[in-house]
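Ticket reopened. Same input as before:
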Amino acid sequence: ILNVEQSPQSLHVQEGDSTNFTCSFPSSNFYALHWYRWETAKSPEALFVMTLNGDEKKKGRISATLNTKEGYSYLYIKGSQPEDSATYLCAHYTGANSKLTFGKGITLSVRP
Amino acid sequence: GAGVSQTPSNKVTEKGKYVELRCDPISGHTALYWYRQSLGQGPEFLIYFQGTGAADDSGLPNDRFFAVRPEGSVSTLKIQRTERGDSAVYLCASSASLTGLQYFGPGTRLTVT
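Engineering reply: fixed in the latest deploy. New output:
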């Protein structure tokens, strides 16, 4: 993997469904993996910053896991709600004085 | 406290005109980033400031793009002779974290007609 890749590109689910997204990133030169949520007309907001292989983080109904050896992270949303509708971005960070390299994002739409 | 602010929120300009986009970072954040998000793409890095100096400007697409941060706080992204392909959302972010956690502004949507 040379770039940050996210799948699927978009997802339409019913309220109450659980869903998960995949982010793949270069496993070499790893420092941190970020997940951001970007709602329409708002600023992208950080969900998680993950640094350690095997890391699992949770915020309410949203959780994420990290595998730095194989270069992937999963984001899970349990019991999706309409307010979860947003674009979810993951970004790879290679260390101090470096930029974030983003995936294309996954657009989630949750139907009431 | 106040987050990152960007002005204007929307800018419509004609092809060939000059535009300036402003970013006001979180007070005390020494790192400031500019990204550009085109339709269907993730945010793409443009330039990174550490204090007043541009530490990495490798993402600027060509010499029509220039950015400054003269006092280490507010930054201005300047685009000369705008082209329709410059239409995008321009995001600014600031950071004070070793893990690279960045706080984003709401973006400026630039439309070049």
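The mean pLDDT of chain A is 93. The interface with chain B takes residues 4, 6, 31-32, 34, 36, 41-46, 49, 51, 89, 91, 93, 95-105 of chain A (CB under 8 Å). Please confirm and we'll close it.
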